Amino acid sequence: MNWIFVRLRRVRLWLSRSSHEQQMSAEMQYHIECETAELVARGTAPAAARREALLRFGGVERFKEESRDSRGVRRLEDLTADLRHATRVLLRAPTFTLAVVLTLALGIGATAALYTVVHGVVLRDLPYVEPHRLVAIWERNAQRQLEHTPASMASFEAWRAEQALFDGMAALVPAPSTLTGAGAASRVAGAQVSPGYFTLLGSRAMLGRTLLPSDEVAGTRLVVLSHAFWSNQLAADRAVVGKTIALDNVPYTVIGVMPPSFEPPRLGWMADQDLWIPLIPAADLRAWGRAFAVIGRMHAGVTKEVAVTALDRLAAQHAESVPEAAGWSTAIVDLRREITGDARTPLLVLLGAVGLLLVMGIVNVATLTLAHLRRREGELALRVSLGASRGRVVRQLLAQSSLLALVGGVAGTLAAAWGVRILYRLLPAEIAKPAIPGVDAPVVIASAVISIATALVCGILPAWRATRGNAASTLREHASVRITRRSGRALVVAEVALALVLSVAAGLAVRSFVALQAVDLGFDPHTVTTMRIMLPTERYPDAGRRLAVFDAIVGTARAQPGVTAAGAVSLRPFGGGGPRTTVLAEGAAIVAGMEPPPVDIRWADRDYFRALQMPLLAGRLMSATDRADAPPVVVITRGLADHLWPGGSPIGKRAVIQLNGGITAEVIGVVADARIAGVRQPPNPTAYLAIGQSTGNSIDLMVRGNESIVPVIRQALASIDPDVPLFRVASLNAVIGDAVASERFTAFILAAFGLCAMMLAAVGIHGMCAGDVQERQRELGIRLALGAEPVGITALVLRYGLGNALLGLGIGTVVALLVTRAMRAILFGITPTDPVAFVGIAGVLLVVAFLATLLPALRAARVSPQLAMREER
After folding, report:
1. Are 191 and 174 in contact (CB under 8 A)?
2. At what angle do helices 94-118 and 344-375 cross, to 10 degrees?
3. CA pair distance 409, 104, nearest whole angstrom
4. Which of 152, 233, 518, 726 has the least C-beta neighbours within 10 A?
5. What is the secondary structure of 254-310 as a DSSP string?
6. What is the pLDDT of residues 577-635, one digit of tens each?
7. What's the chain's average pLDDT?
8. DSSP state of 41
9. First vs last Cα of the chain: how many Å apart?
10. Kindly report the CA angle at 643 between 639 and 647, in degrees rounded to 5?
11. What's residue 872's pLDDT?
């Protein structure tokens, strides 16, 4: 343990070195004065005595150095001196210092921030017990091109019985409801879940308990609350367990509150979950068909392939007794991949892009450091010629690089902490994300280590070469270090190549987003406001009464000034998954191997089409007489008409819709195809039944023209029933904007990275050319003295800079053609080899390279020939 005390003593001596220096100087002065006094007493003159005393004592500074060495703190003192020297050098070169610090901060901050977000959304383990064994289970029908379809109740119960495959299984289905009795009525995102749901995830309640298998009893009215709902709606009442809340005017007993750390799995339409009630497999739920998301925990050692084979065998056995189940099989997906969904690919692409940006930052630091050292060649040579050791010069440059790296690392860490919050705000709402995390420390450390290592290498190698050879000879030749132009050129070429790769990726993402925005939706969303009304079936059991309420609300909207059209539809465009089934021409049959495409089913009135300006191509729209007591009618899209009656008119024909036991409806009209499921999805065949013949309990109201109509509709609804809220209020443009939020986020971040890459490339090219001009001043001056024109000198420097840029563009193009293939899944309307993006970005980078080279080129044309000739002599 002695070495610990020795080092602690040395640190203490170093901290109190000022007082030790004063004591040492006083002691030496005392000895010199005593010797001087003794010589004076012997008769020597005072001045001569003083001189003789100093000669007898010896070199004062030498004794001080020996005393310092004996304290064992010389290295600390040298380090302090080197850091002070490094600080002075860096302050004398503020442009270089600021450029390096900002480059390091950008590389470290962007990498750490984006990796933290990607890890939190895509890479982290789910916050459940043994999450690697959790899977989502879906049904699929290859013949009908249906993948990841929700399961039926019969399938779920058959799967759950397979105890040899699964340790547990739970089904979920959305159960949105209206909270009443706690102020104004509000809509809450509830879910019906199997009582084993929380046990399956390994999650416990913060207050009370969760749902148990014994709660799967008909008539059970129990509810478990999320922490957010408990805090916001019930004022965090810790005595809430045992109390009741009213959902759709039905009392439910609160049995538990989940902790704030509980994150319910977001499965497609099962996004937000504010509360959970028991899923009781009663007859009404069985009639829903395929509507349930299913989560299972697989036995240890059971693979997905084995489980799929076993479940497919069950499906085949079920199809033998139920012909309607033929063609259905099973799909099993890791729960983490299912939750991340479409966000995984764009976020991983962004992670690769930020990695390129970090590499560019490192190359840029190397370029700037080399250019800076080239300008200090004379200084380094002079110091070596005056006796400075190689080790001391290297240590001082090492201190300079370390100081730069330290400041850049601190700035990068602060930028990362700020960037994580910004990125989380920019993330699309549909991406499942936990609470904003702290910056991922290992990523910051790794990024800092890479950047520091680069700064150190770029400082040590030139310094080592600077101290080689004969210093006097170097001074005579006016250069201490010939840091080869080849090294600087290679770095700039690499930087331009990387900038092209990153900028092309940004260009592809932006062009893809522009193409997405330009898609013809088949309707006009501008100035359209949408809002949803849902009536509780317990209080409105009669379909006629529900339709009367809807008619009153729609009529109120139509009567408002500025409203050009107001219509109702069962589910607005981009409103989520609605009914989808098979539609056949009357008398037609399904031919094996030629199954018809699934058709989206909606209920609408005539003004819905007018509100969205969807053109009527043939026939008529619904009328006020198309009610429940009239024969069913349907309006179909052109794609469905061409499929059912190719080459003929569908008007007056009858279509069989396999829904609710089968609906045979007369085709009264044909409208244009429209993208109602999503911007990326092509128009799907759609059949619109008359909303006056619907038995549903909800509508989406679509109003064109008066965007301030919401308070009027809210007041009208409150006058009819104050316990029915108006919800999902938004402009249709905002709804469509949310549908492309992921693409917008990717394009924005990649564009920012591309801009940063171009700026780094410009700084690198400028630094290289400026250093080259500085090194070639004598040559350029002699050229001018011998009659060279300034324009020719400018062109010479421009050719050098642009030549390196063109070489980098060539290499970068080849790399980009290989790298951008990974973006194929996130692009829309263009290919990864889009020539416009490649040529356009290359042109912009060439302009950037020209501007970055222009200033050093103009400076080269102004070199003084007289100064060059004087230096040559």
Report:
1. yes
2. 160
3. 7
4. 518
5. EEEE--TT-----BTTB----EEEE----HHHHTT-S-BEEEEEEPTT--HHHHHHH
6. 778 888 998 887 766 556 678 899 999 999 999 999 999 999 999 998 998 889 999 99
7. 81
8. H
9. 64
10. 100
11. 46
Which distant-in-sequence residues (6+ apart) come within 8 Å of 561 by Cβ? Answer: 706
**pLDDT confidence of residue 594:** 64
Residue 772 and residue 488 in contact, taking contact as beta carbons nearer than 8 Å: yes
- Three-state DSSP at 557 gives helix
Length of the chain in terms of residues written: 873
Please state the φ and ψ torsions of residue 352, each to the nearest 5 degrees: -65, -35
- With CA atoms as reference, report the closest residue to 865 among 774, 778, 773, 770: 778
Burial class (CB in 10 A: 0-12, 13-18, 19+), 40: middle
For residues 140 and 129, give the distance between their C-alpha atoms in angstroms, rounded to a whole number. 28
The tokens describing 871, both together, are 């230096």
Q: Is the dihedral of CA 132, 133, 136, 137 positive or negative?
A: positive
Structure tokens at 173: 């289905």
The alpha carbon of 737 is separated from its chain's Cα centroid by a whole number of angstroms, namely: 17
The backbone region for 352, taken as left when phi is positive above 0, alpha when psi lies in -120 to 50, beta otherwise, is alpha
Contact 859, 790 (CB under 8 A): no
Instruction: Take residue 321 and report the two structure tokens written for it.
Output: 């007794």
Strand-pair partners of 331? 138
Q: How many alpha carbons fall within 13 Å on the CB side of residue 415?
A: 22
Confidence of residue 184 (pLDDT cuts 50, 70, 90): confident
pLDDT at 419: 83
- Count CB atoms within 10 A of the CB of residue 55: 9
Task: Give the number of other Cβ atoms within 10 Å of residue 589's Cβ.
Answer: 7
Distance in angstroms (rounded) separating the CA atoms of residues 38 and 44: 9
Going by C-alpha positions, the residue among 423, 426, 275, 267 that lies closest to residue 336 is 267
Of 452, 443, 450, the closest CA to residue 415 belongs to: 443
CB 532 within 8 A of CB 698: yes
Tell me how far apart the 2 most distant CA atoms of the chain are, in Å: 141
Sign, CA dihedral 570-573-578-579, equals: positive
Token pair 């478990």: residue: 224
Fill in the DSSP letter of residue 151: B
Residue 603's DSSP bridge partners are 689
Which residue spans within 156-237 are E strands per DSSP? 166-174, 177-180, 186-188, 190-193, 207-208, 222-225
Q: Residue 478: which pLDDT band, with cuts at 50, 70 and 90?
A: very low
Chain-centre distance for alpha carbon 24: 62
Query: What is the β-pairing status of strands 293-298 and 134-141?
Result: antiparallel
Half-sphere exposure of 708 (CA within 13 A, CB side): 2
Which residues are bridge partners to 224 per DSSP? 256, 276
